[in-house]
Amino acid sequence: MRPLNGNAPLAWIAAIGFFVASFWSHLSESELPLIGLRNLTAPHIGWPLTVVTLIMALFLSFPSILSRDRLLICAGFSLCLYLVVTFYVSPVVPLMLLFIGVNIIREANQLNAAFKRDAAQKRDAP
User: Fold this and answer.
1) Domain count of the fold of the chain
2) Do the Cβ atoms of 55 and 78 come closer than 8 Å?
3) What is the pLDDT along the chain (126 residues), one digit of tens a residue?
4) Domain that holds residue 89
């Protein structure tokens, strides 16, 4: 799998965005200028989502520990995180998490199809 083609950088962008939104109350006395992210300034919502997104970004950044099954678990995790952020924060904010989950599933299906083709060619070869 090639996590650095798109999934890991997207996860890092999401994690950094969540971190800045969660940390905003310590940076400024004014409200967060992005209305869709204001719920992330609540400590019981923002910090857990930030930590979980950072863990996902770290996981996707190490290709040596990734396998197809682990990436599919990460895709499910990303899609669940998408639903949580949609309900607790804003429907627009988690679109990057949805894209990460769908992209991992798409890449895993392409890899699975390539393995099946290779297996069929080896089986048919004399």
Assistant:
1) 1
2) no
3) 454 467 888 889 888 988 888 888 777 777 776 777 777 777 788 888 889 999 999 998 888 888 888 888 888 888 898 898 888 888 877 888 888 888 888 888 877 777 677 667 777 666
4) 3-124
